[in-house]
Amino acid sequence: MTSVAVITIAHGRHAHLAGQVRALARSTVQPDHYIVVAMDDPGIDDIVGVGVGARGTGRGATVIHLPARTEQLPLSAARNVGAAAAIASGAEVLVFLDVDCLPSPGLLEAYVAAALDPTTGGDLLCGPVSYLSPPPSDGYDLDTLEDVWTAHPARPAPDAGTVVRGGDPQLFWSLSFALTAHAWQRIGGFCELYVGYGGEDTDFAQLAVTRGIELAWVGGARAHHQYHPTTSPPVQHVDAILRNGAIFHSRWGWWPMGGWLDAFEARGLVARTPDKSGWVRLAEPVPLSSNIANST
User: Which of 61, 102, 257, 293 sits a CA distance of 20 to 30 A from 90?
Assistant: First the structure.
């Protein structure tokens, strides 16, 4: 029997994590390991102390505490720590879920099937995600989430049972993906030069491409992204995006997150360097009202 690990990284968002625990308990395939990497958040232990266990045994998650050395969260390092723990525990398939994601009952089953298929078993696997509206006061009704499914318009969403290979690596997102332990080791994990929001997932997909690993979209691996307010574009992350974008440019020769950078420029938050090869932060941004939206 194939050993499966679910890996989640978290800082805050305790209600969202509790929802994920409840959703995982309804999965048609139960994980052998549920690893939660807590970034500067001791309260995570209380959220996942009981719940999802190995093949339904009732054993709680493994929580790994990772300190953050700066104000920016070590997202790349946290995913690497979680993957290392999963592989050390014998996991053969690694499933990464954002703390905000509620897996559909068939998500793990679909990812595992794709990972075991000889055609797609070496691929970097992504599932479609539906962004949810704010929940009612008593939380989301897990029985009816599939009734309100609306796939993100900017990402492929194949029908259940369909896997589409040859995806654009620039569309990879780290909020829901899976791969075999062997494919993870071929890629080498996330680059830990990235700290804070933005760029590390596009870098990971670029690494996969250089190792001959295709991106594949798994139709049945549906996740539901729980609502939280943020700004669009994510102006709260402008400094991290500039820093991480520069790291990406130094590694790959082009700038990721171009749409966000253009939106920041329109708001007076950033400007292109004189030679047009980079971006700089402006001291006096032009004040504009924020557009609050549900986003990653």
Answer: 102
Are 82 and 65 contained in the same domain? yes
With a cut of 50, list the residues of the chain below it in pLDDT. 50-58, 286, 288-295
153 with 174, same domain: the answer is yes
- What CATH code is carried by the domain that includes residue 34? 3.90.550.10
AA identity, residue 110: A
pTM equals 0.92
Residues 93, 144 within the same domain: yes
Phi, psi dihedral angles at 177 (to 5 degrees): -160, 165
- Of 200, 227, 254, the residue at which a domain comes to its end is 227
CB proximity list for 241: less than 8 A, separation 6 or greater = 197, 198, 199, 234, 257, 260, 261, 264
**Residue 223 domain boundaries:** 4-227
pLDDT at residue 291, rounded to an integer: 40
- Rg (C-alpha) for the chain, rounded Å, is 19
The pLDDT tens digits of the residues spanning 45-62 come to 888 874 444 444 345 689
